[in-house]
Each structure stands twice: as C-alpha cells, then as structure tokens.
Amino acid sequence: MTRHEQGLVLTTLGMLIISPDALLIRLVGMDVMSTAVWRGLLQAIGLGLLLVLFYQGRTLAAFRAVGWFGIGIALVIAAAQFAFLGGIIHTSVANALVIMASTPFHAAIISRVLLGEAIPLRTWLAIAAGMVGIVVIVWDGIGRGSWAGDVMALAAAMLLAFEFTLLRSRRQINMIPATTIGALLSSVIAVAIAGGAEMPDAQQTLWLAVMGLLVLAPATALMTLGPRYLAAPEVALILLLETVLGPVWVWLWLVIHEAPSPWALMGGAIVVMTLFVHALAGLRAERRRTVA
Q: Is the Cα dihedral 86, 89, 91, 96 positive or negative?
C-alpha cells in the first residue's frame, strides 16, 4: 500500500468506529458537562492503555517525545472539544453541523499557509460538494440557532482544522500521546467549569465505558495517525462521514422513532458519493506518480 492508501484506510476506519458516538451520547443520557467529564477521562484511559500495549516500557518516552509541541496540540484538542460542545448547546444542531462542515475548507487554507502544501483542485471541489451535502441533510433546521453558538461552532471547525495541520507538521512523531493529554485536559476543564460531575448509574457506566474505551480511544488513535499520510484537508473531508453515519446508527437503534428524513438521505448520498469519488481520484493520481 502507498502512504496515501494507508492514510485513507486509517482515517476511514477511525471514522467508521467513531460514527456511533452520537447514539452513545443519547444512551448515556447525562447532562452535557458530566458527559464531557467522563467521556474525556475514559477516552484518555483507553488511549493510555493502547500506548502501554504498543510501547510497553517505552511509554513514558513516547509521551516525552511529543515535547511542548505536543502539549500545544493537546490544548488545541481540548479547546476544539469545548467549542463544539458550546456550539451544540447554544445554537441549533443543524447550524452547528453546517458550520463544522467547513473544517476541510479551513484545513486547506491553514495547510497552505503554514505548511506550503498545494491543495489539488479535486479536493477543493470535494470540499464544496461535501458542504452542499451537509446543508441538504440539515436543511430544515438551518437558521434556528443563535449567533453566539454559531461563532463557537465556527471556532470548533477552525481549531479542528488547525489540529490536523499541526499533526501533519510533525508526522515523523507519534502524536497519540498528545491526543491522550488533550482528552484528559478536556475532562479536567469540564470538572472545573461545572464544579463537579454527575455520578453515572450502572447502565450509564456501561455506555460510557463503551464510548470512551471501545469507540473514542481506538478511533481517535487512528485519526491522529491519519495526517501522517494524508493532507489535513483530506482527513477533514473524511470526518464528514460522521454527520451521515451518526443519525443512521440512532435510526437503527430506535427503529422507527427517528427515521432519517428524505433531505437527510439525499444529503448523505451526496456526501458519501463525494468522498468516494475524491478518494478514487486521489488513488489514481497517487498511482500515476508512483509509475512515473
């Protein structure tokens, strides 16, 4: 496999694993800040366990290897999570999703400015088509939010794009330890803001464990590795899959209570087809360069 193919596999697999996240948040049923506390803590524990399994006696060395740059990435990760939560709380979900769909656009600009990476025309076209698909998915709810929440969602999109670009700039270093620190920081900040956290019952503990240990930990590990092989805009493009797959998981679990609307199905088809065509074009371009 070429590096580009490895990046597509890692990032897409991570996105597929994290796609039930919205359903798990629904099943946990806790307030937003308490969910953030336990979600971040368990995600950090899960990532820590993966690092120990991989590095064994070299785990501390792996954390030291990320240096102060990794601490900076961790701060960006924590800030992005809270900006996203603020967007979800203070504006409509539709507005937040549409604004978050601009992440690949911001990633393309930031990558160009900071890394000097040229963005192929196919990626710009895919970004535009992907944003159209997201708008179609949430068409009925657009315009019902507040400007404060919209600004927070925009900040989340820009921070996420910045995160992918920073990861790309240090692709020679495994930044999963930085992601682990970021998850832990988000939990600590949530505790500080909320002044504590609701204690989960047995059922909630089960769903939180599934979310943090089995979903978020491996998914974020894979998506942290993605920018080592793919440009930041391409990684951000693949993240649009969660907007499509998240509601599908909820629908499958609840059967008929939250069936996707025709708009959602049409928009989802646009996003999936866009990502498929873009990935196929990227693979063909990569193979042409390899042959040459």
A: positive
